[in-house]
Write a structure and sequence with these properties.
about 200 residues, alpha/beta, Lyase 2-enoyl-coa Hydratase, Chain  A, domain 2, 2 domains, 4-stranded mixed sheet, about 15% strand
Amino acid sequence: MSEPILLKERRGAVLWLVLNDPRRMNVLSDEMLDALETAFAGLREDDETRAVVLAARGKAFCAGHDLKQMQAHRGDADGGRGYFGALFARCSALMQSIGELPQPVIASVQGVAAAALVNRAVPAEALEAETMALAERVASKLPVAMGIGKPAFYAQAGLPLEAAYAVAVEAMVENLMEADTNEGIDAFIGKRAPRWQRE
């Protein structure tokens, strides 16, 4: 039996989602999109996962859209227009859903990644270890603070400065009203380990 197109591996509080179609350079086929949508939907209610790593097998992280699947729709009555529009809308929704997840998501990119941005580059042999170290550091943070901070970060994007600060002020106040934030501050001041109510 063949392996699934998306592998899942739990490492403590970190969940690795691994694109597993290396023969086709992990293209965003309909099947890959199905698997990613399902995985992301499950993460919305997953309290066990504190950070997500998106990785891939093979020489390319993701070579973009599945051109063969796209070309197959040229024979549609509308020349493929409906399929193309639905595909790009689906991909846009998928990419936006990453920002909407409660957990931080880290892309561990090896080789080619179409239409991607880079925060840090490391030697290939160190990629997995460096990614895991970052994911564990992120996963160790107070979940309620991450749950408030991540949506606020994305809400600020593209706003005028005054509006962005208003979003930040609301997020910071909301965070400070949480019992675990209070506990964390008391623990820091008292030079002791925090005793979280919500893990």
